[in-house]
Design brief:
By secondary structure, the chain is α/β, with parallel strands linked by helices. The chain has a single domain, classed as Alpha-Beta Barrel (TIM Barrel), CATH 3.20.20. A seven-stranded mixed β-sheet has the order 1-2-3-4-5-6-7. It is globular, with a radius of gyration of 16 Å.
């Protein structure tokens, strides 16, 4: 048994369309109760891949029909071997790859750009969608963002107080065909 498996739970964060107020997807987030499995996953693409598979399995148990977002570190995606079991996990969950967006999360420094772009192309060919996570508060160069051509750009909420930056990103997304989302926007009801 994996030592982290017993102390790991998953949270389901709704992705909301602000125009309609409807929930359009669920982001499946690993929440370790003890230890720091996420820091370990940053160093170990195989572990990060197993966490992504576990996230999909947790979502399957909820029987949601909504599309899913699963986080993977950029290094894991560049390694790609860490995601070898992901396609099978999607099938076992009764899903199709296009129903799953792989949210590529930082850090991007020291990740070989050619390997990352090749991996993005490979998972796209399998049908997965690509999200660029943490844009605006991470280390993603603008050139890499353009080269990734993500289906979704997740802008860090810290930029909401900088309207010029939001407008610039909105224009970039409109020109590239990507959707723009702001992460971390919350309301209490």
């Amino acid at each position: 048994m994996r030592p982290w498996a017993d102390s790991l739970r998953f949270a389901f964060q709704p992705v909301v369309n602000l125009a309609t107020g409807g929930v359009v997807a669920l982001e499946v987030l690993a929440r370790p109760e003890t230890g720091d499995v996420l820091a370990e996953a940053l160093r170990d693409p195989e572990l990060d891949g197993r966490l992504a598979v576990s996230a999909l399995r947790a979502a399957a148990r909820t029987e949601t029909l909504l599309p899913l977002h699963v986080n993977v570190f950029a290094r894991t995606l560049a390694d790609l071997g860490g995601l070898s079991a992901l396609g099978e996990a999607v099938r076992q969950a009764g899903r199709l790859p296009w129903e799953v967006t792989l949210d590529v999360v930082p850090p991007y420094a020291h990740v070989p750009r050619p390997a990352l772009l090749e991996a993005v192309s490979a998972v796209r060919e399998l049908g997965f969608r690509i999200g660029a996570d943490g844009v605006g508060d991470g280390d993603m160069p603008l050139r890499l963002l353009v080269d990734l051509a993500p289906d979704l750009v997740k802008l860090d909420s810290s930029l909401l107080s900088r309207p010029a930056a939001v407008r610039a990103m909105r224009t970039l997304c409109e020109q590239s065909g990507a959707l723009l989302a702001v992460e971390g926007v919350e309301t209490e009801r």
